[in-house]
Write the structure tokens for this entry.
Amino acid sequence: MEFLRNMQFSRREFLWRAGGGLGGIALTKMLAEQEALALSAHHPPRAKYVIQLFMNGGVSQMDTFDYKPELEKRHGQKFDPGAHVEAPTSEPGAVMKCPFEFKQHGQCGRWVSSVFPHLASCVDEIAFLLALQSKTNVHGPASYMMNTGFLSPGFPSMGAWISYGLGTLNNNLPTFVVLPDPRGLPYNQKGNFSSGFLPVTHQGMIVNAGAPEPIAHLRAPAKATYVSKETEQESLELLRAMNVEHQREWPGDSRLESRIVSYELAARLQLAAPEVLDWRAESEATRRLYGLDKPGTEDFGRRCLLARRLIERGVRFVQIWSGAGGPTGNWDNHANILKELPPMAAATDQPIAALLTDLKSRGLLEDTLVVWSTEFGRMPFTQAGTGRDHNGGAAVTWLAGAGIRGGVAHGESDPWSWKAQTGGTYCYDLHATILHLLGINHEKLTFRHNGIDRRLTDVHGEIIRPILT
Amino acid sequence: MCRTRGCYLVVSAVVALCALGHAVELPQGHWALQPLRKAAPPEVRDGDWCRTPIDRFVLSTLEQHRMKPSAPADKRTLLRRAYFDLIGLPPTPAELSQFLADSSPGAFERVVDRLLDRPEYGERWARHWLDVAHYAETHGHDQDRPRTNSWPYRDYVIESFNGDKPYARFVEEQIAGDVLFPDDPHATVALGFLATGPWDESSLRDIREDSIDRQIARYIDRDDIVTTVMNTFVSTTVQCARCHDHKFDPVAQREYYGLQAVFAGTEKGDRLYDPDPQLHRERQQLLRRRTELREPSAEVRTGLLAPEFSKHVAEWERSQKVVSWETSAPISVASANGADLHIERDQSVLASGKRPDTDTYTVIIPGKGATGIRLELLPDDSLPKKGPGRQDNGNLHLTDFRVYAIHSDSSIAEIPLRNPTADFNQAGWDVSKAIDEDAQSGWGIYPEIGRQHQASFEFAAQTLDAEQFKLVLAQDHGGGHLIGRFRISITDSRPPLAVSNWPENIAAILQLPASTRSDEQKVALALHVARHEVEQKLAALPAPRLVYAGAHDFIPDAGHKPLGKMREVRLLKRGDINKPGELTAPGALNCLPGLSGQFACDSSEGSRRAALAHWTTDPRNILTWRSIVNRAWHYHFGRGLVNTPNDFGKMGGQPSHPELLDWLAGWFQENGGSMKKLHKLILLSAVYQQSSRDNPEYAATDSDNVLLWRMNRARLEAECVRDVILSLCQMLDQKMGGPSAQQFVLSPGIHVTPRVDYGAFDIDRAEMRRRSVYRFVFRTLPDPFMDSLDCPDSSQLTATRNTSVTVSQALAMLNDQFVTRYSEHFAERLERAQPRNIPAQIRSAVQLAFGREPGAEESSRYAQFAARNGMANFCRVLFNSNEFMFIN
């Protein structure tokens, strides 16, 4: 029909339509397809899984991975790069050197400061981006930018885009899982792992690893004493019978069928979740490797270990957060680098190194991409004594695993690590590269919203080829 | 997508040549930009089927496709459909049986009339509007602060729907109600529309005013306002033209920035209003006068020099007491903790060098007979934020101030101080605290930094003779809250010596004889008097109410303050803050036939918005009229005649029934923009009253039912799920309006964003039982139950909701404590009505939840289940069923 061909359908409606007509396809698959673009990859993927470690607050790059001898020379002097200097929350103070010792590590000779002794042993696996920039120096918009590619709320996060683009690998588990810091959610709270205008099924499922009820709504609340294992089984049977009958009465509406399937999948998640979250099933040696035997590393170690268990079982994208929102207890070290940075680093150093080691020894690093990132860097000069203010000009991010060339660095900041100097990148390039490794062309992964074909990378993004194998 | 690259370049050239930003010559064949076609409803073969003109349009298209409409829905289904559609709640069994029994003509029409008269109608349709307007009650972003004064706007929307406010007026009030209808309090509250969106508190309030990040945030914030206005009212995605001319629609980049310029003086903040119209009028006049005096125009200046006002100024002057302060030249100054204190040429003392945590200054000045002393705090370029304090934020805290008389015999006696006054006191840091016994309390001036302040203290014993005075200024608060620059004066005037709020220049003018004052000085003085009077009159009025709204003048909040004038809006090349281009003049779009987007407005902030409001509601603005009838159609049928209600551009949907859309838009204009008439017209149509039953033959070619050969089945929205469950439990609170119900436990967070705990909330509390439109929506942490049912968090405009089917939705419907608890309540209600009678309870449950009688076999199966598992488990299954979740 000419008329109908001329009508414009949203992609989502198109999929609904397709779902309605595919009688022969298994219901589970149908449900997955209705919710996801489920594109066959644009090109053969290098990675199937992503574990993103997000250091909330803005990691100080010159105190961790971006070694700057110039800061030692100019320590205590007025910061004068020959251009306008401003800091978002303070008056720029004097140049401050890194208070920790830097040494070269690995065959690649990568400089790492003494706050990351374990990670320092992994540098030959890692590709560093030493000049990652942000368009803002403020936590909220910067966190949105690193997670969604936009400065404003309401856009889908990278995990949601990947879920939308690639669909699920395991019908019993969600595609995108978030493991927040037990101290609290990051800046923007759930905004950083929201599905934005994508269907809500793509939003990150929060798993509170240490909590008694790690996944919301997985079981009836304890107060609902009238619900037991027996009643639950009979209830689900009755519900299914009612829904099947209703659907027979009203054929031709795929949503009715999908809802029936969704309850079956829910029951499977109820069965699968306890198994995947049971880190106690891991050997003593593995638990020790991740630092579960020490209070300082126990929490982050547990979450890294869970990330490995999740991707092993087909979860595509796991995001682990270090640090809650707010002015302290995270990487937002305004007051005292010497006091505030080491505990954050120590809590994550061994667990992250363990994750890389463990993934590698199990052969999982072949198709798992590990990304370490933060929302922006910090200033080469002081603020209030020995702290540093926010700096969108330069930050460090690193990647390891599937498709990544280990032992290299891309981009360079200026002699003070104030701004990117060469090979500057933005989140767009990082996101484009991650999607590329997953087999997705970032320019083709789109969703029409309010008149614009939206992309994770907006209108930007260059694949960072020098760090790829 | 018809434009080639070459054509696009030509367009850019045209734009560049248009010095006045006048109508861009673009191909205007696009349907949405054509004048309304007022075609008569077409002839159809099956004329008997048609009840309204709408039906002829729809049937004619169906007949062209050799299709027939579906049979009418049965009365039960129709009634349920109308109830959910208009009031969002199901009919009671009594209402149902009454309707079933009424076979007289017009029975359904009477139902529709009754529903439109019910207050729940406004609540239901306001919720749709709040989706479009992306209304929520926190800022979003990292400082997700609750907005305690947003709700009056939500009530305004409900009242507007219930009062069937003409649509044009509804639009105008939300863009420029304060200007166009200044005497109507509702029209000020309506401006809540401009402030519904997120607001980046860190960037717009807390970081440095002079930072690039604040500028970026301002453009983003205005973009939110422009996007909200233009997507909502004219279904045009102007935001696509932020970085370049719109690629698909005739929106030039300079037109986009012209729209930003309309809001160059509009910010988001708490503004004052009074529900009492007379008080409202009075206060708003004073507020306008205050704004007018902030940056007075030539006209206002002339008014200030008029003889009548001059007389008034003279009277005021006579009533003022002038204290003559004499500046003291310090003999010595000393810092206890090592700061450098230097005496300047104007006898002020400037601190520099080391900035200790705390300090005490000791100053010796010449003595003489005196009745009091004055401390002036002065700004200085060398100080942070220009001071007058040394703290990073320009503040200081004078924690203890003492004055001693040194007599010629070297004896020293403290002079008790009293009646302290200051021109400004920081909240919690009143000047009286500088002479109390508490060493930690004191006088501060934040956020009024970067300017001069003064405090006066009377000597308890009058006119003391002393050789010298020794002053001790303790600043013990810590954190560098130290005085950066100050000056001392003394007086022998008779008390009271209260500091007047005279700025320095006014004090100087008052020293001059009236006859020697220049015109400029006269204006300055008159301005001061006029401002003073406005403040006095405002202070005398009863306390106002607040609404969080688009505002030029609003309650200052730390670093977020009214500027009093327009901000510069420049065209940003490629949308980049670092590539500012020309200044832009306020205006709208020029692509509409016969309607210019150029504004003839004066320099005031409100006139820009008024011009945009008039442009929007102009009868020639066909976008506005097509937009709203399409929105209404979308909510009635689940799909608009254009399926992209916020985008009528080339990337949006095509109208499925273009003649019907135009006919409806014209009809709506002719009927005074009455939403209620429009609802009624649609509900009484045969199209609306069709069955929703599938037809595989038609579905094979039109599975989306674009041609409307049946009615669409609707899934309950998240709010309806809650409201219906509450109403089935007989626990739905009927109360309307007021502050929103926080259905979570709120406690202080680590920083600004509070902790929000849904799980810990006692769900039997009264707040839980308010209708969902009164829920407090927390942007960065929305209710997971509502979230799973596709309730938007309002970070973005929601023109159409998703209706997803997900695992987390199934789990939430099964296990959220709301469902499990209210399943018990529903069971208790059934038990109360028919104690221990399971079959009767089952029958009621099915009647109430599904609006029908259960079959015999069904009843016995349910009864068996309930007997084994309890009625609460049965109710929980009912709530989870498809029959409950979908409306046929």
Q: What stands out?
A: The radius of gyration of chain B is 34 Å. Residues 1-27 of chain B have pLDDT under 50 and may be disordered. Chain B is about 40% helix and 10% strand.
